[in-house]
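> forwarded from #structure-qc
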């Protein structure tokens, strides 16, 4: 599934809007898929014969279990969607790492750069490329990487958890 978010990037706030929009589009798409699957399982469960005829005839019960799983996933996605909608309606400006922060880092000894957008829950692990800015990875606030970023400001130096000891400098926090 391809989700496109096209926003003209003119400043860091626009980049945050692009990231949040992408996350919101991703959650809405997942909700749509789950709603269709839930509806399909509900219809199949309703069409199936009554109680199982034999120990091998469990289709109705299985359809009901799957339906409950889709309902559970929808219950998980709804607050996530609401959270991203709130972020999008009032894009926070950050001076230090925290939920809602977009942070750009650079390795101290090289020119390698990395950008991270910190979210509360959900959406973590997604990576997107923003034209004229680069790749942004979405990380959860409770991830070990993010724990090193919390409260860090522009100019701060940190060592991120990797197989090697690499020092990074915070170039920008928005």
């Amino acid at each position: 599934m391809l989700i496109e978010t096209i926003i003209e990037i003119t400043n860091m706030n626009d980049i945050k809007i692009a990231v949040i929009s992408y996350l919101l589009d991703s959650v809405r798409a997942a909700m749509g898929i789950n709603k269709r699957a839930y509806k399909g399982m509900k219809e199949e469960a309703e069409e199936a014969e009554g109680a199982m005829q034999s120990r091998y005839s469990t289709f109705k019960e299985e359809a009901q279990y799957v339906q409950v799983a889709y309902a559970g996933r929808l219950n998980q996605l709804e607050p996530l969607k609401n959270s991203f909608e709130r972020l999008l309606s009032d894009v926070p400006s950050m001076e230090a790492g925290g939920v809602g922060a977009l942070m750009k880092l650079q390795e101290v000894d090289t020119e390698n750069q990395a950008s991270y957008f910190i979210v509360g829950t959900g959406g973590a692990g997604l990576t997107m490329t923003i034209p004229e800015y680069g790749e942004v990875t979405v990380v959860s606030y409770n991830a070990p990487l993010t724990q090193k970023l919390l409260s860090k400001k522009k100019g701060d130096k940190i060592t991120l958890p990797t197989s090697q000891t690499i020092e990074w400098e915070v170039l920008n926090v928005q």
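QC bot note: Residues 1-8 have pLDDT under 50 and may be disordered. The radius of gyration is 21 Å.
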